[in-house]
Amino acid sequence: MAEETLTRAAPTAPAAARDTPRRGFGEGALLVNAIFCYLFLYVPILILIVFSFSNSSLAGVWGGFTFDWYVKLFQNTRLMTAMGNSLYVATASMIVATVIGTLVALGMERFRFRGRQAFDVQLYMPVVIPDIVMAVMLLLFFSNAFQLLNALLGSSFRLSLTTVIMAHITFNIAFVAVVVRSSLKGFDWRLEEAAQDLGANEFNTFRHVTFPLILPGIIGGALMAFTLSLDDYVISYFTNGPGASTLPIEVFSRIVAASAPTINAVSTVIFLASLLLVSVSQLLQRRR
Known about the structure:
Layout: H1 2-9, H2 12-51, H3 68-75, H4 77-110, H5 116-123, H6 125-128, H7 131-153, H8 161-184, H9 190-197, H10 202-231, H11 234-239, H12 247-256, H13 262-287
Helix pairs in contact: 2-13, 3-13, 4-8, 4-10, 4-12, 8-10, 9-10, 10-13
């Protein structure tokens, strides 16, 4: 019986041996593909950072090492104003979108109601539709709404930083809701029932039980909303008004005008800030 077992098992050995080269080739191909993708994505960014320290007046020419462009960046009133506008828009839209997105996520995960599936589809629309489509829609909405309000009320509503904030809130709600809902997956709702059985009302239950458990997801969604708002160009360009330029709009206008390497410095600052926020968001998600 043992000899028969060995005889039957023997033919499988050559097949396993034949699979080893194939497996090694596949792993090597995946490694080469990963290296190529990383080089394709990050080498241009590395070149941008290097040339932000160039002492040449041309953005793409190396002329020695210097910090002058970073000094001039923070001395440039127009760039600092645009940066302040971007921080204001990003902070305001982040706060509002985080509150609304968190409430939406809690409602979608906790309750089952008629039209829930249709609402779920609509909630994800800002995530999947192109930015240019949303920008045009928001511009048409604001233009027609302000025209009607100005005619009825005799007011003077127009595009401004407020409309940019409203536009950013519109697409940030979806991203916050997605992140918070992911933190609610597997949430044990019996913890809330236990807290209420012990005498806590709904507010105290949320404050002391639910909120601490989903806080990493809320912070992650807030940081993502802040990053997306800070980096947005298309929607901001279509919905801003006179004197309401954000930093991405100002950067693009200077690129078109073939500006000095200050643009490399400000792009590096934006990249590092975005990278820091995304890293913190991912760290909080992993801790959760």
